[in-house]
Design a protein that fits this description.
There is one protein chain. By secondary structure, the protein is of the alpha/beta class. The chain has helices at residues 11-23, 43-49, 62-66, 92-112, 127-131, 170-189, 214-223, 246-258, 280-291, 316-321, 330-343, 345-352, and strands spanning 2-6, 28-33, 53-56, 73-76, 115-121, 135-137, 142-144, 153-154, 157-158, 193-198, 200-202, 228-231, 240-245, 267-270, 277-279, 297-300, 310-311. The strands form five sheets. It has a seven-stranded parallel beta sheet, sandwiched between helices. Strands 11, 13, 15 and 17 form a four-stranded mixed beta sheet that branches. Strands 6-7 form a two-stranded antiparallel sheet. Helix 4 packs parallel to helix 6, helix 7 crosses helix 9 and helix 7 (214-223) crosses helix 11 (330-343). The protein starts with a strand and ends with a helix.
Length: 353
Amino acid sequence: MKIIVTGGAGFVGSTLCLQLKAKYPNYEIVAFDNLKRRGSELNLIDFQKNAIAFIHGDIRNNEDLQSLGSFDVLIEASAEPSVTAGLDSDPTYVINNNLYGSINCFNACVKNEAKLIFLSTSRVYPIETIENALYKEEQTKFLFTDNQNINGISSKGISEELSLEGARSFYGTTKLSSELFIHEYAAFYGLKAAVTRFGVIAGPRQMGKTDQGVVTLWMAKHYWKQSLKYIGYGGKGKQVRDLLHVDDLVELIDYQIHNVEKFVGKVYNVGGGLKNTASLQEMTAICEKISGNKIQIDEVAETRTADLRIYVTDNSKIENEIGWQPKKSVEDIFKDIYIWIKENEKQLESILK
């Protein structure tokens, strides 16, 4: 089997390439990436060591994709992943990459009669709807309550039933648009695709920044004893996300590659779920415990554009229909990131510090 991973030198892409190659040494794994994100070039060394082919290319350029030759599976993990992309600047790059680039990938799949594994996002859901949900404030975090007047939100989190009406960010809109195109490609060209709306994914190999990769950012700042900020919602650090270990994502995508027919025509929300939630405050406590370092954290009351007080994934549908559920805990995620930083301190210092 020949598997192409677009965005293959990114956090999720590189982890997929390395873990799939380790499990299936006879598969041809090809990482395809434009190396735009700082730090992605470090993964090329690991690819060489593990017999993973690397092709420097851009999904926005159809000729680059055609140079791949025939293949059996394409995992589309190449998105510009920042929620703030295009909100305070020209949105052309995020639209060209996440929508037009994805369509080039779909066309390549049709041409090769290949399966598509599409990584979508929880950010397809409208900001205002989620922000208007009923919540409670606990000592260290905000949580959704059960008595909601919005279908698709409960104390378990956000399910696939939530309405898609409303604004969501250019990032979320490009991913939702790609989902809609996949439905068309499936109906008219017979494209076999698995579409998954992932929440926050975290773990080793992520080059964390303030706009994307906050879990790595949090641990890195504790590791090198640098300051952080609680931004928004009063500046107390109570906003919450559920966290999914990248290893749990790989396990699901491995299953999708080999059982794509179970996913055709469906969309699933996938994340760490309610048991794997953490507020910024709670992330700080975990980082202090693991690193042994306490750092200064400033409070900024004003909330940033497109931020969410709470996002928790309701995994009920995929757990009931497919039987998948996350295995790794929030603490596992932070421990694994800490070990990765410690083992690669010299290479990562200039990028994460």
